[in-house]
Structure formats: structure tokens, C-alpha cells
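Q: Please design a sequence for this.
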């Protein structure tokens, strides 16, 4: 089976350039998906389980660093960056593969050689070995690269309950769940619908208080009663104030490793 990769960058021209360069440097590599933002990148990694992901540092929804923090134990990350040599030195110290924009053929060839070595060392049954110590590097890079300040956090949800419009304080929300073109909002006592996609909510909610646990689900951390595996070996979240349980997908399971 050939190696598989995902390209995540909010600039289509950059995705096209990386795809074209990889086609020349590594024709056997399968590009199984592309993503234009961090949320879609996580979803694509969950759906396709590639060996490698080429991640732009700056993306809407979630930055490349935030995506890497979620998936780095499952896939080998190659950061794509426009930052200067000072930042590049941090990548080198962290033993992480990277590409500078615009991508140069010679540098890409070196990255491809490294990726093939990782793939060969791991064996096809286990995929490529992710870089060690990436979580520490991610924290250091976030400070060093001075990423933009966080988006102002959402405080109120305007939701339709029957024929009425209600303002729900976000702290009252137990969880959000995608439902076709809408998102369902669950509180301890009620349910409502809003015309907001999950990916927009992820970008506006406080990430310390609301965790995405599935491509379609965000849960209020303070509402989590416990986490356990069911008979199908799925990780399930039990809630304090609602009876249903919420499934945790593989991409987000590491959030609960210390619980």
C-alpha cells in the first residue's frame, strides 16, 4: 500500500503548489484529502487516517499548531510556514519536518527523504512514527511565533425554541451537536436549534471550557461526569445533567488520557 497524506492550508494556490511538488518528488504518495481550515483538517485526518499531514501554521478555525496538538500521536506532521530563520531553528530543535513558503524543490526533496525514512522505520502496518516531544515544541512555537490574539469568546447563544427566540448563556449549554444544516443546543432542561455550523462555534467558544470531542459534537467540560468505554470499545462521555452519552472520536480521545 502506498503512503497517504493530507494537505491543509487556507490558500488554494499553496495547496495546489504542494500537491504539484509532491507529485514530482514522490509520485507514489497518495493525497487523500485537502482542507482549508483547521476544523476540516482534523475531520479529514479522522476520516482518512493518513501517514502524513502537511499543516499550514496559520489557518482559520484552528491553527496548524492546535491541529497538531490533537493528532500528533497518530500522524506525522509536516508544518508549512512562512516564518523566518529564527522560527526555523525551533523546528530543527524539535526534530519536526517543515517546509518554508514558497516551497522549494530542493527542500521538499529533503523532507520527502525524511518521510520515507520514517515510514520505513515504522513499517506499513503501524504508519509513520510521529516526532517525539511535539507537544512541548507546539507550546514554545505558539509563544515564539506570536500568533494573533484569540477571537473574542462567545457569551450568548441566540436559539429558536418553538416559535420563540431565546438568549442562552453559554455556561448553561451542556453540549452542541451538528444536525444537518443546523446545530442542536442542549441545556440541562431544554433543546434548541441554531443556524451555526460546529466549526464556527469551535472558533468562538473558550477552548478551556468547551471541548470538541467529535467532528459533530462540542461538550461543556464542567458538565462531564465521567468517561468510559462501551461494549463496542468506543470512548463515551457521561453527563451530569443529561442522561444521554456522547461518543468521543479517535482524533479527540487524547483529551481524556489524564482523566
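A: Design:
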Amino acid at each position: 500500500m502506498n503512503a497517504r497524506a493530507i494537505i491543509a492550508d487556507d490558500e488554494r494556490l499553496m495547496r495546489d503548489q504542494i500537491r504539484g511538488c509532491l507529485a514530482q518528488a514522490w509520485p507514489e504518495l497518495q493525497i487523500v484529502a485537502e482542507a482549508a481550515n483547521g476544523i476540516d483538517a482534523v475531520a479529514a485526518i479522522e476520516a482518512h487516517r493518513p501517514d502524513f499531514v502537511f499543516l499550514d501554521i496559520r489557518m482559520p478555525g484552528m491553527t496548524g499548531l492546535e491541529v497538531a496538538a490533537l493528532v500528533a500521536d497518530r500522524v506525522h506532521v509536516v508544518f508549512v510556514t512562512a516564518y523566518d530563520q529564527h522560527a526555523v531553528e525551533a523546528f530543527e530543535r524539535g526534530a519536526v519536518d517543515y517546509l518554508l513558503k514558497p516551497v522549494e524543490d530542493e527542500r521538499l526533496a529533503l523532507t520527502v527523504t525524511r518521510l520515507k525514512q520514517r515510514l520505513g522505520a515504522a513499517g506499513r502496518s503501524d504508519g509513520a512514527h510521529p516526532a517525539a516531544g511535539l507537544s512541548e515544541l507546539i507550546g514554545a512555537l505558539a509563544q515564539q511565533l506570536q500568533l494573533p490574539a484569540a477571537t473574542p469568546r462567545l457569551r450568548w447563544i441566540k436559539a429558536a425554541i418553538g416559535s420563540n427566540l431565546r438568549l442562552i448563556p453559554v455556561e448553561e449549554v451542556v453540549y452542541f451537536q451538528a444536525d444537518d444544516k443546523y446545530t442542536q443546543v442542549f441545556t440541562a432542561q431544554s433543546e434548541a436549534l441554531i443556524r451555526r455550523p460546529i466549526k464556527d462555534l469551535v472558533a468562538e467558544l473558550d477552548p478551556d471550557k468547551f471541548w470538541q470531542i467529535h467532528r459533530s459534537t462540542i461538550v461543556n467540560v464542567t458538565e462531564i461526569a465521567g468517561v468510559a468505554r462501551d461494549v463496542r470499545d468506543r470512548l463515551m462521555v457521561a453527563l451530569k445533567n443529561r442522561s444521554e452519552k456522547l461518543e468521543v472520536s479517535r482524533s479527540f480521545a487524547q483529551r481524556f488520557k489524564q482523566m
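Q: Thanks. Anything notable?
A: The first strand starts at residue 4 and ends at 8. The mean pLDDT is 82.
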